[in-house]
Automatic annotation (TrEMBL):
GO terms for molecular function: tRNA binding. The lineage of its organism: Eukaryota, Metazoa, Spiralia, Lophotrochozoa, Platyhelminthes. This is SAM-dependent MTase TRM10-type domain-containing protein. It comes from the Eukaryota. InterPro entries: MT_TRM10-typ_sf, tRNA_m1G_MeTrfase_euk. One of its GO terms (biological process) is mitochondrial tRNA 5'-end processing. One of its GO terms (cellular component) is mitochondrion.
């Protein structure tokens, strides 16, 4: 009874860390990498099953404490973890996976940032085409309003570059010199969504109804979402329309 009270007084984490302290011998079938990890894990011996449960409990404990371990483990990672022969080797392996995970995350973020800059520049170049087409529309060009365009942002700088603002021999000194209106506000602030006198129509490539050429309501405000980020794969513009309809 006295011994049990002493054991119960130990922190659970200490017991977990010390239980399998001695190095163990890894069975040959666990080291066979010619077999898929799913198959190996499906035919574990009772001893290896118990050891796997302990390893996963140890991993979950470290994850909850914010240790340098990966957010998740695939089947190959689980099998490799089971092949570690000591708590130290398991810790080193999990830390290695953590570093690989962070490296991949950083590489992905750099790639997405680069893609976003490319997309911002692409949008600016497309806007030069839009403005030129709008100028030649007859009998009435659209009154274009650029919503959400804020000075000091990358998008604003790319727009200035695309339209030659302050460029040599350019007569354009500001984006506001061009035939449109620029506002930093969201379009829903400029055009009330449920205004019956001026309906707001959000154009989306994911809409069920097709917009036919010449099918214009001259009292309506047509919204074109400038979403050209290739990192975004979801139908954002149609989702925004459904969300705004609730309010």
């Amino acid at each position: 009874m006295f011994i049990r009270s002493i054991i119960d007084s130990f922190p659970k984490t200490w017991i977990i860390q010390k239980r399998y302290l001695p190095k163990i011998k890894i069975p040959e079938y666990l080291l066979d990498r010619t077999v898929k990890p799913e198959e190996v894990l499906s035919r574990l011996t009772p001893e290896d099953t118990e050891r796997l449960e302990f390893c996963m409990a140890e991993y979950q404990n470290m994850l909850e404490k914010g240790a340098d371990v990966p957010k998740s483990l695939n089947k190959r990672n689980v099998l490799d973890l089971l092949c570690c022969t000591s708590p130290t080797s398991r810790m080193k392996f999990l830390r290695f996976l953590f570093k690989c995970e962070k490296r991949d995350e950083n590489a992905l973020m750099k790639k997405l940032e680069k893609m976003r800059l490319v997309d911002l520049r692409s949008l600016s170049n497309q806007m030069t085409y839009v403005l030129n087409r709008n100028r030649i529309m007859r009998p009435h060009p659209f009154h274009m309003v650029l919503c959400g365009l804020k000075q000091g942002t990358n998008q604003f700088a790319y727009m200035e570059e695309a339209f030659g603002v302050n460029a040599k021999l350019s007569t354009i000194k500001s984006l506001n010199d061009l035939p449109w209106t620029i506002t930093p506000n969201h379009f829903s602030h400029e055009y009330p969504i449920h205004d019956l006198e001026q309906p707001v129509i959000l154009l989306s490539p994911n809409a069920r109804q097709t917009f036919e050429a010449g099918e214009y309501d001259h009292n309506a405000a047509y919204v074109i979402g400038a979403i050209v980020d290739k990192a975004v794969r979801r139908p954002i513009s149609s989702a925004i329309a459904r969300q705004l309809r609730k309010y």
